[in-house]
## 1
Amino acid sequence: MKKYENISFCDVDLKDGFWLKRYLLNKNVSLESVKNRFEETARFDALRFNYLKNGRKPHFFYDSDVAKWIEAVAYIMEKDRDSMRENEKFIDSLIDCMANAQRDDGYLNSTVQQICPDKIFKDRGNHELYCAGHLIEAAVAYDKVTGKHKFLDVMEKYCDCIYRAFISEKTADFITPGHEEIELALLKLYRYTGKKKYFEMARFFLENRGKHDEQYVYDGNRYGTQDDTDIYHLKEAVGHSVRALYLYSGVADLCAETGDPKLLSALTSVFDDIVNGKMYITGGVGSTFRTESFTVPYDLPNNTAYSESCCAIAFILFALRMRKIDFNAKYGHLIERVMYNSLLSSTDLSGKAFFYENPLEIALEEYGREIAVPESRKERLPITQRLEVFGCSCCPPNINRFFAELGDVIAFSDGDTLFIDQYVSSAVNSPLGRAEIVENYALDGKAQISSQNYVGKKLAVRLPEWSEKLVATSDGKPVKFEVKEGYAYFETGKSFSLQLDFGIKASFVAANPKVRADAGRIALTYGPVVYCLEGVDNGARLNRISVSADSAANAELVKDFHGLYSITTDGFIDKDNSALYFPVSESVKEPKRLKFIPYFAFANRGESDMLVWVRKA
Amino acid sequence: MKKYENISFCDVDLKDGFWLKRYLLNKNVSLESVKNRFEETARFDALRFNYLKNGRKPHFFYDSDVAKWIEAVAYIMEKDRDSMRENEKFIDSLIDCMANAQRDDGYLNSTVQQICPDKIFKDRGNHELYCAGHLIEAAVAYDKVTGKHKFLDVMEKYCDCIYRAFISEKTADFITPGHEEIELALLKLYRYTGKKKYFEMARFFLENRGKHDEQYVYDGNRYGTQDDTDIYHLKEAVGHSVRALYLYSGVADLCAETGDPKLLSALTSVFDDIVNGKMYITGGVGSTFRTESFTVPYDLPNNTAYSESCCAIAFILFALRMRKIDFNAKYGHLIERVMYNSLLSSTDLSGKAFFYENPLEIALEEYGREIAVPESRKERLPITQRLEVFGCSCCPPNINRFFAELGDVIAFSDGDTLFIDQYVSSAVNSPLGRAEIVENYALDGKAQISSQNYVGKKLAVRLPEWSEKLVATSDGKPVKFEVKEGYAYFETGKSFSLQLDFGIKASFVAANPKVRADAGRIALTYGPVVYCLEGVDNGARLNRISVSADSAANAELVKDFHGLYSITTDGFIDKDNSALYFPVSESVKEPKRLKFIPYFAFANRGESDMLVWVRKA
């Protein structure tokens, strides 16, 4: 099995552009916003182990919340350690608390130790190994950037404890964790330390999964926590979608280590199952809030879409790992789709507030419909405005750490070829030389890629799914390229400068006819960006609106929305009628100019109806 | 306030035709099916008061289930006592049990007496007065047809007990019942016995409603049980829809007695609120299963429609009462709509099984979507096949008693005019003479109305909502008529024979653009009958199908479905595509011949997708 070298963010410098803005928003605003909310909600206190003193009860996932935030800070430190000096001190002090609180046997979990010390590794649902996984990831990142080993030492000691409890002494009451995450963390730790033991531990948790049915039936159901099958027989994406994607990411890491073709085949089957039937057009996944899970192919309700922000991140993590072991443009396509849509929608334009769920429709009338139903029993619908913190606030720090490692997704290399997967303005310091990407991709569909010191022979650029034709030039002259497996290959010399024009335009997309929720509907896209209608621009009850696919040809782009294009097109609105039912002949639709905005920017101007899939006129 | 004389079923003989078939199906099959299931499920045993002997625990609504069945038998006895001799004995024996079990103070409730005798009138949610109401209705009907007074005596003794507990001594722990029904029952008892006390009791329960807020907050909500407003200020239909419609029926009865214009105005406001925004095209009401309630105008989801069978009946009961105090064709329109659609759909074609909910869409894929969700937490959707009995089996005996009193809806008289509201083959023995109706209305849109001994001066026939033009003839010659307020008025002599042709045809109907669930969709109707697509005829995933409104012009009617028309039209089906999302230009719809069947007949050929509102091509 062949592997492809990912150019990590360590070797990438973001340059001015769409994504640097978001990187900086995360660094300068979101990170601090999450920190403040976590302080207010006693999440840091949890790891200060001062519950007895302040009485603010920690929750089973608090350690993981803090860990993700630390990991985010560590990644930012890699690029700009000075800006994080205060956070570094803050983290050092948390690490001291953790080290002090760690039990002699190495065990470390703020909730179990402070709330229910008799429950160590007794309850599979207690998120202990999930928290451990995130702490390990944070420790590796922090160790790497600071050279200070205390955190990693603590975590290695904890890993020894875990090893004894689950592998050598088997004192734990369960075999695999209820919420996956430690698997990919242990493989990361293995790669960082070189210690084979961590690889063994990861393999243990991965290979035991789906093999102990009787223990892991969740209310009559083995799918919820991916206990339905072992990793070598994975075929479909099932169960809690974040857990599933963390599992698949861990399996992909294992596959990268072992090169087992059976695992690769299982993983591609799962990946294809998602992108061919279980993914929203925004790249979001998870079609039901009930156990936050994958459902069946083509089941993609828009108003009750779960599409958790953590899923957007986890799906990118999975795709990125797949790209390293399976050369295919589909992974880059997916990452682009998620990044510009379900990932970006997770954060408001100010950077302070976040969505947990990212629905594709908001019909405010639905929120007030059940007037005679007690609050506690009303239909559950996604919230309509982003919040700064949640009771279960897994997404905000996950968003922090994703943006902090954003540069990971851009480039790969293989032999004499540098692959550009994502068009993000940056300098990529690859083994084949330094390449510069200058782009305004989401606005003009173009990118310039150049190098002065290239030692490779070819440059391959991913052809976006939405692009009908690539026009490549150099100094204004057409350049030839060969299209192979979704990439355009260019022969290069030591220095080159290529102008790529992917022919961006507004166009409407249809969904598979089996998708009931999207039947007879179309979605406006502009390159990688999915657009939506909002009530604030188009009036309430957006399902009265219809649009012809042809209208895209006359779409007008206006850069009026935070430097982004809004798109106006001709559409229609059904004329009001006083009757509840009437002959179709009395049904009238009137012309209406429609204003679309990027989906990711919805819900930034107060509560409003929103609709991605608009009725086709 | 003027009143209109309803020709009761006592004075109507059904004749061979569509509705007699259904009347006989109820009499010969449904009644027995319900009886058998009720025996099996210990419902009759409840009223035999032998829980201690057989250990089969009665439920709070068992008395009402049995009462409705007895009432049905009594109505059938009015027409054919001989056929019910066995049931009469059966009922007499039940009455003996009730008389024996009745407490000295008159109290009678099989559940409270046997399960929790300390709870008499302690808990508003225990359905005691609801059960009493249905028993009173049954007792009146049984007394009237048999002349045997034991049952009525028992109930009058119980009424004395209720009077003391709620009015004179006020020992009850609540003021008005949680589930309305006793109000209209007491008014029926008042009319039957002439005893003013029952009128006072009814008025007490009606006029105290909505006046005791603090007591009647249901989980933070006063709407659920119509405790939000008093009856003189009713404006909108709210809360549990069956309870609401029973309440409105009781209020209409009160209004008929008092002639209070404020009540009439409140009632018309409520009626209009329903038919203008809260009613499915089938006449079904109740848009959410959560507290089985009305929601807000235009909120009419199809796949999760509650549209309880009891609501269909209760809505007819309400409309019929309104028609007696408010001359308006809309009440007849509503009754027709309900009868041919949401009422008929409640029963399968064999007469044995019943729907509790009557959805307007079944998408089987939705039922299996949440594979990773434990059974207990899956999304709740209506059942897809009728059942012979339910845990809460209020609908089947309600259906029994409605069909048994079916003839009530046909005609009214006022002064010198006989009004024909419903076209049902029958002989109507009105104060103005005997009129015969011969029709095949649902198949040909025609009816013949004749009389040989008419002493009135005019005949008025309701012009159906769906009819664009009435052609009236006598002996093949055109007859003149005057159209006024939705009725066609004919001058008559002592004998007449009118042929009415309402111009039935297949045509598509649209819904108000505010109805989100029906946006861009149309429903096929044929006269009073709403049609639907079923998967068994058209393949699964019916939302792939679209149809042009024009196609109705070329619709082909085939009498191939239990003597009913199926309607075939030209339509389209979206062509399958392997991609999940693709440019609209790749979207292809192919011609497909569509087969529609009457909505009420859906789910008679096994589990199948079903769709009323089809995408407009």
## 2
Amino acid sequence: MSKLRCHITISLDGFVAGANQSEENPLGEGGEVNESARIFEESRENIGAAVMGRNMFGPVHGGAWGDEQWTGWWGDNPPYHYPVFILTHHPRDPVEMEGGTTFHFVTDGIESALEQARKAAGGKDVMLWGGANVAQQYLAAGLLDELELHIVPVLLGDGARLFHNLGDAKVQLEQVRAVEAPGVTHLKYRTVT
Amino acid sequence: MSKLRCHITISLDGFVAGANQSEENPLGEGGEVNESARIFEESRENIGAAVMGRNMFGPVHGGAWGDEQWTGWWGDNPPYHYPVFILTHHPRDPVEMEGGTTFHFVTDGIESALEQARKAAGGKDVMLWGGANVAQQYLAAGLLDELELHIVPVLLGDGARLFHNLGDAKVQLEQVRAVEAPGVTHLKYRTVT
């Protein structure tokens, strides 16, 4: 079955370290290439579409989309190469980029975004790109299937926590594996329903 | 050199899961015997003394020590078999138990407790038994050398956080290793000064 998967780098004190995270540098600055490279490669396998929060797509600045020409941080050929469904309150026509990435803008909520992404994925999995707030919503709604945390030995002291705002949701996780790599540990969990 | 070492079980959302933790059941309820047994054995090696917070030693109830006869949760023969220095505001004479455990009560702060424990350890390491508040104080003071976190896939949603109350302390940690075991991952860090 098509799964909803999420990879998030968090500090040892539990804050989402998303700021410098990217497809090219999935662990944020300081990420090393080694056992982590295998994990990273694996994270890209069997993904047919993605869901992304509005803040990961672009900066928030005045007006509905601020700049209607904004097409993400990633240049003309974003590293996704699949349809990406962006959660937003502001309708916008899809934007087709080079290399197979199309940005779709979803205004009717997380379930709709997942449904559309699943359909577009054609049987493959859907990647949830975050950020923290969006991951929280999918976790709380019981829609996330797999969560891989990249734990870096940094204390951020402040920021967004992945496991906040879960309300009364009874989220149950099961450890799938732990992989040690220099400067980071990759912890994979699946949700139990 | 004699190190100050600390083992703490924390939930995936970062709360100290100390309630059901004990020497016999170091991972709290649900802890399994396997790779974790090796980690547990290792944690007991080369320890010559310990420091412990007052709340780990006994229940807080009216009066200085409530019950002056209180000698801990562990019966006549506690599982330590070395001197244990308990941080408290209430002076009390040392209590010698069976099996080599002696409880000393330290009223002049964490540095004094560590100094006394180090001296008693005779070159071996000192175990910091927690709880969270005491661990925070040693972390913030830059006195902790080694921290091993046992991360269990549970969301507690509330409780004490190990990495709170660090004030302006610049705590730097380095990942030493990660060990996967059923239902838990053991993450070992050392502090960098």
## 3
Amino acid sequence: MPVGTRGTVRTQTLGQLEALGAPMLLANTFHLLQRPGAEVLERMGGLHRWMGWRGAILTDSGGFQLFSLAHAHTLGEDGATFQEVADGPRVVLTPERSIAMQRAIGSDVMMVLDHCVPATASHGEAEAAMALTHRWARRSLAARGDSPQQVFAIVQGARYPALRRASADALTAIDGFDGFAIGGLAVGEARAEREDLTELTAALLPADRPRYLMGVGTPLDILEAVHRGVDMFDCILPTAWAQHGRAFTAAGKVDLRQGRHRLVDEPLDPSCPCQACARHSRSYLHHLVKCQEPLGWQLLAEHNLRFYVRLMAELRTAIRNDTFAALLAARRQTLAQVAA
Amino acid sequence: MPVGTRGTVRTQTLGQLEALGAPMLLANTFHLLQRPGAEVLERMGGLHRWMGWRGAILTDSGGFQLFSLAHAHTLGEDGATFQEVADGPRVVLTPERSIAMQRAIGSDVMMVLDHCVPATASHGEAEAAMALTHRWARRSLAARGDSPQQVFAIVQGARYPALRRASADALTAIDGFDGFAIGGLAVGEARAEREDLTELTAALLPADRPRYLMGVGTPLDILEAVHRGVDMFDCILPTAWAQHGRAFTAAGKVDLRQGRHRLVDEPLDPSCPCQACARHSRSYLHHLVKCQEPLGWQLLAEHNLRFYVRLMAELRTAIRNDTFAALLAARRQTLAQVAA
């Protein structure tokens, strides 16, 4: 899922998004509550209609902001109150309020409000956050009401295998979730630890419902997680890298800020059909990036999103053809270079 | 001509530019000398090939920077030396060096280096700048060599009708210019004065060659200048307004930063075929602008460029059909509201 935090995948027009072919976008409840707020989304008929996107939308609940804005909120059993910040008003998030906003947004998949803690959390902190996440999961499910929108639960438990097992068991025992996410990873832990926890957790989730690894990751991270049973991902890297002049290519990471591209009359990635590769040279892209021209960001975002979408298509095809093991062996090396 | 100062019309992809249908872009010799410099353009086969633009390109000579960067250069008979600035190296501009760079760029129309002075220039200053402009025009023409690129002269003379007449007479007496520009306007003078000087000057320029009013202007400015015999224009307003959330529409100027658009589920301009109007509401565009999302800038730039291109098409059609007088009478009122 390309990330469209505020109801726009940064720099991409609808035409570009449609050509990209990603079936689902991610939007963020916290940021949409800040701006434009629930009233606009309700009166404009929901996010799909408002932004003009005909594909699917998954909304994060705002739980990740309990981690990323840890110093800007107060937390209680009922929910979290975020301070007013420069670019947005005060936001109060409870499980019910998050789901109400996600109903106003009209996303296809709503996430339960969860309490995401950093990788450094103690066992006691992790256990408390997990238990709160479970109580909030039940309240979120109850708040769904008669909405046809799907609801996914989120497994927490930080770096503690026993807590991850307990969380997966507790949430899968609740009737009514349409899918399950693995939350609280990619928040500071080592790669090997993340992969082990992903493997352990994914194996405990029902095979007949989607498994979603939140906020992950590099192409290699995704390959390894698919290998461990994950079906869905969201990641900001394609658009965030583009903003800084960095591109994913089949031959590895390319930093277009570097002067060595100044006179390179070759495409960024000859195998890629995007506008940046089909119509421009590295020399021209380097110039756009050096001048901080918005077109550079736009073109590289389209390119990087295509890289991800093509990778996912490659993985799906391999799974269907029962050739995933061979693909894994072949791609582990090449993808390790992409985001090294 | 949409303005593509650094070899990109800010925020617009080639696909958008091609769909726009403008036959010619403007690029800037001074800024392209700063970055990427002559070597890149020579080795990449010129600006058309490097940026991928199949239409025509006119290059400003750098003369306008003698006005806009007045405190950052030293001037002599030979040319101007610009100080190193934060976003670019030291640039030396002489008539020969400007033409050499424009040959490296490979523009379809090269402008002579001229000395543009502010509207506050005294008669003595204006006369000296005009005389220097004439000497530089001859040197620029000589520097063209065997290039097939066209060269346009630039009439100067500031706010002094007698100087404008002298400048037009002196330049049209030189054999070899493919077109004539009216320079040194839109630099601080009143609208009525600009219109009078445009009328006076345009009448002295040959009817069989293009007349180009540099750096003008609002839709009404363009209407009034066409009425006075001008054929060509460049203007930064469509893209510059877009960056600040402002749009040109048939019904007048629209400032999308204003909160009154928050709940308006109507297109920006129902008569416009651009992506912003065809697929988005004012409510959504307002959100993008408020969040400073680059997509807002992109969409409004496309919209504003289309507004200008459609206006020019309307003017051409009226001239061909001999209905310009009626159009002028009808549009003077409506266009006055557009950039009021």
